[in-house]
Amino acid sequence: MTQTSARLLIVGPQGSGKGTQGVRIGDAYGVPVVSTGDVFRANITEGTELGRRVQQIVEAGNLVPDELTSEIVRDRLAEDDAARGFLLDGYPRNLGQVSHLDEFLTGRGEELDAVIELDVPRAESIERLSLRAQQQGRTDDTAEVIAKRLDIYENETAPILGVYRERGIVDRIDGVGSLDEITERIFAALEARGLARRAAA
Ligand code: ADP
């Protein structure tokens, strides 16, 4: 049986390539990509009130408070284009946010269909992020802030996978290889779950 909705989450350490893969998955499944990091960065760049509230936190590599982050995601998921599904990138990022998301989805009679875990060793992540720092100059890509973000990932974000693993919805994908190879691995895993990609136009 294939199903026509897709409620997906991609999880992986900084530098795992989840942003790039997330966009490809969103495209293939015809669902919006909801990236909390992108939302925060856009608001910081535009100097909105939200941007001013979160700028220091984001630039120091710390997590924005759960209540605020969850409210932003809830509002975004309530929009029409997310009715048939979505791909969450960067949220939930700790156990508190998992509870918030559970509450929201349960209230709508929905649940996550699959959690894609992009597996990349810490040394490889650091190497990729240092390269990105040289190329793009993201203000949270300094060596010290990168180390802090990876520590938060290992201590706070990785544990959420245990919760989802118990539900049997985690697909662990080897995140080392070419971008296309990794996309193919992800598509194969989702297909095995009976999730249907959008027909090619
Ligand atoms: P990365 O995964 O490379 O750290 P993101 O773009 O996912 O980058 O996030 C950038 C920053 O935005 C984080 O370091 C954090 O400050 C903030 N952020 C993003 N998502 C969340 C979240 N779910 N909860 C709290 N803070 C978040």
Descriptive overview:
By secondary structure, the protein is an alpha/beta fold. The longest helix has 24 residues, at 143-166. A 5-stranded parallel β-sheet has the order 2-3-1-4-5, with helices on both faces. The protein is globular. The protein has 8 helices and 5 strands, in the order βαβαααβαβααβα. It has a single domain (6-192), classed as P-loop containing nucleotide triphosphate hydrolases (Rossmann fold, 3-Layer(aba) Sandwich). Helix 6 crosses helix 7. The two termini are 22 Å apart. The structure holds adenosine-5'-diphosphate. Residues 14, 36-37, 40, 57-58, 61-64, 69, 90-91, 93, 97, 140, 149 line the site of adenosine-5'-diphosphate.
The strand order across the widest sheet is: 2-3-1-4-5
- Count all strands and give the number: 5
Largest sheet properties: 5 strands, parallel
CATH superfamily: P-loop containing nucleotide triphosphate hydrolases
Tell me the structural class. Answer: alpha/beta
Evaluate the radius of gyration: 16 Å
Task: Examine the coordinates and then state which fold CATH places here, giving the name of the CATH topology.
Answer: Rossmann fold
Approximate shape: globular
Unreliable stretches (pLDDT < 50, length at least 5) are none
Mean pLDDT: 94
What is the ordering of alpha helices and beta strands? EHEHHHEHEHHEH
Summed up, the domain count is: 1
Determine the strand fraction and express it as a percent band: 5-15%
Count the helices. How many? Answer: 8
Give the bound compounds. adenosine-5'-diphosphate
Give the name of the CATH architecture.
3-Layer(aba) Sandwich
Distance between the termini: 22 Å
Helical amount among residues, as a percent range?
55-70%
CATH level 1 name: Alpha Beta
